[in-house]
């Protein structure tokens, strides 16, 4: 085991109503101090069943330019499938430690797949109040069932079904975003690798925390991905940074939360915003979320799309192989 799981730390911390020092954030990060308490602007919600396609396109593009995040409803993923996805994920995290450790990320692994706790370097040595499980769900050539839980038994069937639906939704949104750049519908999909783009499932498990005023489930970050499609459970926690404030995101049952990630920011040469976000935790309830990160293959070079570059719109970003970009970002190395 890489080190103690937060789920176990939570159980002991709740008894004495204190948390270990390494989980206490500096005052510039503590949610009790930094969360905006006034009227909160509504995060855009887009109804994908609207028959006015131009209206849907405008809404998605505007939200991606201004927020880098929006919620979609009537998105085509069955509500019952989302419920089953969340049920099998929750049941995995409720298993005894020994069963969860059977799919743990190997200590010497260069990849992130598997059950784990620590994800990236923190310059202040702080820890996040979260355990997680990563595994790829698409394309089939990239799936490694070694990191898919065997228990509950229906875990594989549900995730394979979900992969088909989430891929379809992702391609719909990437098509709309491509058209918003004045380009062919498949441009951003191809910019992320086309049919070789990888879909990485992550389950975040944020157990109850006796000091939610001091800790964070995940600190402020933008996603490495091109685009991220996330479904949360009913416990609030997602916060979005906009106009120099941290705002709480409203929970909408069965909605999918869409994050624009670093690779779409770079492919669009900055037209679309990569959303800065973080997660808070709850004193009494477990928060969970299921993001799927749509990413280019590791070796693929990603940078501003040539079709967008002109004298009055020079490239704002350096091109990187995705594996190099990821390594540099996770290790807090320069990206210019």
TrEMBL record:
**InterPro entries, alphabetized:** DIOX_N, IPNS-like_FE2OG_OXY, IPNS-like_sf, Iron_ascorbate_oxido_reductase, Oxoglu/Fe-dep_dioxygenase_dom
Going by the UniProt record, its keywords in alphabetical order are: Iron, Metal-binding, Oxidoreductase
Keyword Plastid (UniProt): no
Domain Fe2OG dioxygenase residues, every copy: 196-296
The family note in this entry says: Belongs to the iron/ascorbate-dependent oxidoreductase family.
**What is this protein identified as?**
Flavonol synthase/flavanone 3-hydroxylase
Provide the taxonomic classification: Eukaryota, Viridiplantae, Streptophyta, Embryophyta, Tracheophyta
């Amino acid at each position: 085991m890489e080190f103690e799981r937060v789920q176990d730390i939570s159980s002991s911390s709740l008894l004495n109503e204190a948390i270990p020092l390494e989980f206490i954030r500096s005052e510039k990060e503590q949610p009790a101090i930094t969360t905006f308490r006034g009227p909160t602007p509504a995060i855009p919600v887009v109804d994908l069943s609207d028959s006015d396609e131009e209206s849907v396109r405008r809404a998605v593009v505007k939200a991606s330019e201004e927020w880098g995040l929006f919620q979609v409803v009537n998105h085509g993923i069955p509500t019952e499938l989302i419920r089953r996805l969340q049920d099998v994920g929750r049941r995995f995290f409720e298993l005894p430690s020994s069963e969860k450790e059977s799919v743990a990320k190997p200590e010497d692994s260069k990849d992130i797949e598997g059950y784990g706790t620590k994800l990236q370097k923190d310059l202040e040595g702080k820890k996040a109040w979260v355990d997680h499980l990563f595994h790829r769900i698409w394309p089939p050539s990239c799936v490694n069932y070694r990191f898919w839980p065997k228990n509950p038994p229906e875990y594989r069937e549900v995730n394979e079904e979900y992969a088909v639906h989430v891929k379809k939704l992702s391609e719909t949104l990437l098509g709309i975003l491509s058209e918003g750049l004045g380009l062919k519908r498949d441009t951003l999909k191809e910019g992320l690798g086309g049919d070789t783009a990888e879909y990485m499932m992550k389950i975040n498990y944020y157990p109850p925390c006796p000091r939610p005023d001091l800790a964070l489930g995940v600190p402020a970050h933008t996603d490495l991905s091109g685009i991220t499609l996330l479904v949360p459970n009913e416990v609030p926690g997602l916060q979005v940074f906009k106009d120099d404030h941290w705002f709480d995101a409203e929970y909408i049952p069965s909605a999918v939360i869409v994050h624009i990630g670093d690779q779409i920011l770079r492919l669009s040469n900055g037209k679309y915003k990569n959303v800065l976000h973080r997660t808070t935790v709850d004193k009494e309830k477990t928060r969970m979320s299921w993001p799927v990160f749509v990413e280019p293959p590791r070796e693929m070079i990603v940078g501003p799309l040539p079709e967008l570059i002109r004298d009055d719109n020079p490239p704002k970003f350096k091109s990187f192989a995705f594996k190099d970009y990821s390594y540099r970002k996770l290790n807090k190395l320069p990206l210019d």
